[in-house]
Amino acid sequence: ECFARPVVEVFPALKESYLAVVKKPIALSDIASKIKRGFYRTARGWEMFGEDVHKMIRNCELFNKGRQPYHDYAQHMKQEFSDLCLDYGKFF
What we know:
Layout: H1 7-10, H2 15-21, H3 28-36, H4 45-63, H5 70-88
Helix pairs in contact: 4-5
């Protein structure tokens, strides 16, 4: 749930403070939408996918500096994504 939907949808009260810190919000629902639209089916598709995932993680780390549990979720997601990339031979 943490990364599934945009923060401003899940926590509307945080919208102003979140958008003051995070300039380019993205959530898994946005990435899923891009997949469905074929956005990543280009020569740079895998790279753009990785950039979006990393942006989502960085946004979480930036907004939640040291705040638990969200900062831990970001760290876990970063490690899991790195492991998947290694498994499939993709690096970001």
